[in-house]
Design a protein that fits this description.
0% strand, 60 residues, elongated
């Protein structure tokens, strides 16, 4: 799997908050943002799988 570049324009206050969160975890802002996006994507896919399972077993 390859990588691509995504460029974002964000305000100064948000960047400072991201730097603070990343520093607490001992990581770069880039790694912090990527991990956050991956975690959010996993959470969404997991919730969709749970809903499909409930629908399949008629548990909803």
């Amino acid at each position: 799997m390859g990588t691509s570049v995504l460029s974002l324009r964000i305000d100064h206050d948000l960047l400072e908050r991201l730097r603070h969160h990343a520093a607490k975890r001992g990581t770069s802002v880039q790694d912090y943002v990527v991990r956050t996006l991956v975690r959010d994507d996993f959470d969404q896919r997991f919730q969709a799988a749970v809903k499909e399972t409930e629908k399949f077993y008629d548990l909803s």
